Amino acid sequence: MKKNFILLLNILLLASCNQVVTTSNSSSDQIDSSSNSDTTLPSDSSTPSSTPSNSSIPSSTPSNSSTPSSTSSSTNSNSSTGEEQETTKDKNILNYLGSDNDVYRINIQTNNNEFPADKENYIKGNLNITEQQTSKVLLENQTMRIKLRGNSTMSADKKPFKIKFDEKQSLFGLTKAKEWVLLANYYDKSNIRNYLAYLTANKLNNLDFQPSSIFVDVYFNNEYYGVFLLCEQMEAKKGRVDIEDHVSKDGISSFFLEIDERAKEEYDGFAGKCYVSIGRDDFALKYPDADDYVDAFNILEDENSSVEDINSANETMSAFDKNNQWLESFLMSVNSSVYSSETYSDFIDVDSFIDYYLVEEFFKNVDVCSTSQYYFIDQNDSVVKLKAGPVWDFDIASGTVSYDSPGIDTYAQYVYTPLFVRQRDTLYNALFNIPEFEQKVRQRYSEVREDVFLSVFNEIDILKDKLNKAQNRNTQKWPFTTERKTWVEQYALSQSYLELDSINSHYEYLENYLHERLDLLDEYYLIK
Question: Are 281 and 261 a contacting pair, CB within 8 Å?
Fold first, then answer.
């Protein structure tokens, strides 16, 4: 009831701003791809053991006892993009439609009409945000740089982007920052998996930060390029993972970490420096930035480096060595503690671990224990623990990989294991052997099932209505296809999934899959 009340308040607020926000309860066949004359696209151009106590790890007493407050907030889309205004944590699409009841338009104009070639090199340009029909300007002619982003998604036809403004910008009222991302969602033909996962995580109050997700149309050098999801960059900054410059009294940094199976290859020769391996998991450093260590190493290897640069590089490497010694010891303690009912809560933030788990398991994230799995450690906390989150990267979750995927041998565990996350993930696999932890999961799921997880289906109904025009434009630009050109298409995506040939069929497919997941979680965790 509480979430419904919040949604009602949002609707009334938007109505007062002359926005039409009629919530659709229609079925998936209510979208008519020919019903909107404004879906005609402009002409396209070719674009490319023993369990230790806390005393067994280095001291991490915080130098500042204040704990950063959660920055998860959304804003009304009519507020100035230069102003940060908090309303509700539910960052729902109703907050991000223009007065024309359509998604906003991001216009990217690059120097010499260049298109980004890779994720290493930025190209310069300008960015504007306007309404679709009224051309009302929300952000005008802001200088920025843009490059490709992602890993497997970068090879898709529709490219994802990372934007870096010259000056910090507050987009749609969110905290000012330079770096933002545009997710293409090319492998997710419904375009809504990431949005639903991030919205669900935002409705849970034990994850300190979860990126917003705002549907926008992207125009690249005056050519329509598709519907995208605008999100905050995953980074340690104010208004994001707010741990930057949080240091213990002993000078130990806070940490933002990602389990990343690519870390060994990316940082070959820098084990224990740019990533820390605990068991089978490689924890890559997002903050402090592992690339800073590599840069310092290269300065020392360069015989032409100045004395000033050499001294700075030595300081950087010394700080990394001190931090990583502490981090490795702490993570080893975490890894040991999760096998004991007496100590696990001393080293992990149980509430965040439970909320994170429920989102990952409900949407059945295929990347668990491989990549895009985030944790952080805040030295400003009164008791320093490993916290789970934010959740990220669900574009090939929730049924895109199935029994008829070409690479079924690779994905057999994912496809045939009902509770994949608790089975696959090292920490959760251990934690679920602790009866107290599983009981807490059951209590939490029973508490939030209706307002958070069951409400996902209402959110899908809303999206069917509110994304109608945007989805139609995107489908004209990027028609449904059974072609298998990239690795993900060749091995991961199932045949039955690729054969779906309309946005309606993709909505229905996703809804049916998530109903099955809800039934599964009910079977294991719902207290009746």
Answer: no
